[in-house]
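Database export, one record per block. Field names are fixed; values are copied verbatim from the stored entry.
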Amino acid sequence: MDKSISVAALFSVVILLAVVEMFFSYMHDSKHYKKSDTMTNIYLMTVAFVINVSMKAGTFMLLQYFYLHYRLFQITNTITYWIVLVLAQDFLYWVLHYTGHYVRLFWAMHVTHHSSEYFNLTTGFRSTVFEPLYRVFFYLPLALMGFNAFDILFAYLITQIYGNMVHTRLVMKLHPVVEYIFVTPSHHRVHHASNLRYLDKNMGMVLILWDRIFGTFQAEVADEEIRYGLTKQPEDTGPVNVIFHEFIALYRDVRRAPTFADKLKYVFYPPGWSHDGSTQTARVMQQAINS
């Protein structure tokens, strides 16, 4: 019960900060918010919440089943238990997030979070709508490591709240030590940018160290204006198309693929891959400009 109250209190703080940020945006006419965009963020959050709630029991039971029957060890020291849990959960989120950017099927689900051309605290609520359907499989290793389902879900909610708070343009770069270790608003502005050099960078939720280790880190460049959103925005931003437009594009590419192998590559290769070279992945284009 105490943990539930803590999560609710922290989530309330995020909502309050979003209201404050919105107020200052309108007061200073900084145009960080647009009513229709904010309403879309709330709509996508609501859809994701409904799916999340409907999946919660199954998620809990699956994690707890693996914890009870297949855990490999158990950490008995409470402090060590929580430090390892948060670190491991944050790393597995990085893996989940990386998959969402480098496997097109998962990008079709994750793309909703990136489709806004604005960047503010409500953008953090612009959820990957279908993520609750598959997220649990990325966190099963935590149950095998001896963490019970309730603690896994609690750690996930806490890190998610942190992740929400870095969706802001009002906080500039922080102390270099903080910038080196933790995900900051500066890092996450890069992540939501559609500039070529920024594509598929800074996947971390709490720690930016994973990106530094695995080569997906990119610092915010002072002399390059950030363009938020997708490299190709959908013309129809209605409630259905905003969720399914990338699935539709993926279906069209699979249909036109000449071989079965190419069809599979459209599904599992990174966004931008094409059998005829008519489009390229972000990584290939970044290598071209850096060579």
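Remark 1: Residues 27 and 148 are 46 Å apart (CA to CA).
Remark 2: Residues 1-18+33-291 form one domain.
End of record.
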